[in-house]
Amino acid sequence: MLSSYTAERGWMKQRDPILAPSTRDERYTIRSLHVLDDRWVVIIPGTGPPAIWDIQEDPPKPYNLPESASSAFQDDTGDAKAAIDPYQGDIIIGFWK
Amino acid sequence: MLKPPSILTRVTLSSGFGSELHHDMSRSANFTIASRAQDAPQILRAHLTEPGNDAFQLTAYAAIGRLGPGKLFLEPSRNAIIMEVPGVGIQISDWMRNRTVEIATSGPVRTVPRVLSIIRRNVLRCNNQGTTIGLRLVGDHIILFKSLWVELHLIPPFASADGQPISENNPHPYRFYLQYSHHRFAGASLSEPQPNPESPGDSRIVYVLAQTAFAGFFYFRFTIYNPEYVPSGPGARMKIDLVGAYEMGREEELGPCLAWNSWLGPEGKRGVWIKRRLDVATNIVVAVSFDQSCSEAVPVESGDDLQELCKTAPRIKSTGDIFTAESRNFHDGE
Questions:
Q1: Does any domain span residue B206?
Q2: Check: complex ipTM more than 0.85
Q3: Contact A55/B270, CB-based, under 8 Å?
Q4: How does pLDDT run across A52-90, given as a tens digit for each residue?
Q5: Is B283 on the interface with A (CB under 8 A)?
Q6: A90, B328: Cβ pair inside 8 Å?
Q7: Residues 1 to 30 of B: which have CB under 8 A from any A CB?
Q8: Inter-CA distances, B232 with B145, B215, B228, B284, Å
Q9: Is residue B213 part of a domain?
Q10: Using the beta-carbon criterion (under 8 Å), do B60 and A2 form an inter-chain contact?
Q11: Domains identified in chain B, total number
């Protein structure tokens, strides 16, 4: 064990070029997309808060984030990955710049 | 059943662009991160504390060498980082024992000039026959999904402690040609290995959602027999079934589209894909749910043309659009 850090529970967002739809004129991008536990889909858009959908529902059902969460994502940039806590259901979004 | 996600937890790293996050759903609330930080690439682990606690520990677990630019695959249960190394093949590194093994794979690995647009790149990527577009470890083997074929390799032993390679013949890889007419696969998402209810002791199932840019999306079941290596036992073999298909030319109702990208959940039950409309430059994210009973699955033989098999294979039905970038009206910051 080399060292340790403490990270805070909070909010984050990121940049992932995988889904950037084109090089020049595309204004609306999806930075990353993750299917968690065959149920929850987390989409990190170019700007703004993540979109979370329950694809176990037919049709798929959007999950609304609280307003405080939405505002916390406004200025985030960087690369991100998402995962889910199998016991608590919490979604983790790794955020690195 | 999981409750709706009520908390988002943030992990922030500096100088770690391209880092990879992984968790093992079957084990615990532990998360493994391969940090690409230029100054000190390392393995980090995060463990969630009890609900209500507003902090969790992120621990530096092991130092690792400099990582290449390609996509990383993490297998924390094996302490393994897997990556494709151009000109070499697949490299598997054990971060606990600081040892590496390389698997020479077939076909050239070429890079694509950056100046090309992503559409152009997507099309050209299909021509990189040797490029691995998806992979998964299964027992002592690794599945490599390439643009024209699938390979099943036995993972060779790691080098001994003194750095000398262990002399042991590695059987020829199992290669299975897979294509739709003249189109080649541009992306593939592989589920985690699942037990095979028909033969739980000696086989595993991996579900695959793959796409070609112009032909569409295809859902496969890979059955891998004898995935654990036994020196005197029968070698591993693989059976592939086409469980469902979504052909762009037959299904489109909104205008010309490309099959842009696809993702599959870890159990292979559900996934999403993206269609890109060419006329209005819009991404359409579609949710899909798969019938894993596979009652109408079509067996695939190496070299078969999927275009022919699609005539009898079940059609994949979407359960609905979940996100359209244009409709969300995101601002680009300008």
A1: yes
A2: no
A3: yes
A4: 889 999 999 888 777 776 676 665 566 677 877 766 677
A5: yes
A6: no
A7: 2-23, 25-29
A8: 27, 42, 12, 51
A9: yes
A10: yes
A11: 1
